[in-house]
Amino acid sequence: MGRLLSIDFGRKRCGIAVTDPLRIVATGLTTIATASLEKFVLDYIAREGVDAIIVGEPRDMQGRPSESQRFMRPAIARLRRVVPDNIPIEFYDERFTSVIAHRAMIDGGLPKMARRDKALVDEMSATIILNEYLQSKQYTQQ
Fold first, then answer.
1. pLDDT by residue (tens digit) across 1-58?
2. How big is the CA angle at 52 (ends 104 and 137), to the nearest 5 degrees?
3. Which residues are paired to 33 by β-bridges?
4. For residue 42, which of 33, 29, 53 has the smallest C-alpha distance?
5. Which of 134, 102, 110 has its CA nearest to residue 27?
6. Helix/strand/coil (H, E, C) string of the chain?
């Protein structure tokens, strides 16, 4: 069993999170410039066994695709072209992940200046997306 990698896509930067090889827990990995996404993912796949890539799918409050998808879809299409065919790219609803990330920072006692670090919020959002994805798969497999 290989790792799952998640991406919280943004126009400027992407938060990245991964699971352990047994897919028990997701942890934040890093935040990268969006322009470096393809290279980063290919390098990571070459070093680690990755079975799937989970991308946060922006939706509005009614569950419809949000405006930001028009920026994300072309970038993910480029990523699909370079990622090996045996590694699927799946979308997972990312609504409220930034809000949850900010709440976790406050609850964790992170100072106000540290909470303004948007890269940290993006990394935490990718982690939340991946943890929620893992939980959804656990419930459907039982």
1. 789 999 999 899 999 999 999 999 999 999 999 999 999 999 999 999 899 999 998 8
2. 60
3. 13
4. 53
5. 134
6. CCEEEEEECCCCEEEEEEECCCCCCEEEEEEEEHHHHHHHHHHHHHHCCEEEEEEEECECCCCCECCCHHHHHHHHHHHHHHCCCCCCEEEEECCCHHHHHHHHHHHCCCCHHHHCCHHHHHHHHHHHHHHHHHHHHHHHHC
How far is C-alpha 11 from the chain's CA centre? 14
The neighbour count for residue 75, using CB atoms within 10 Å, is 19
**Residue 63 Cα distances to 6, 44, 95, 101, 133, angstroms:** 20, 32, 9, 20, 17
Strand 50-57 and strand 26-33: the pairing is unpaired
Beta-bridge mates of residue 4: 52
Q: Angle 97-107/118-141 helices, nearest 10 degrees?
A: 110
Q: Which of 21, 17, 42, 24 has the alpha carbon at shortest distance from 92?
A: 17
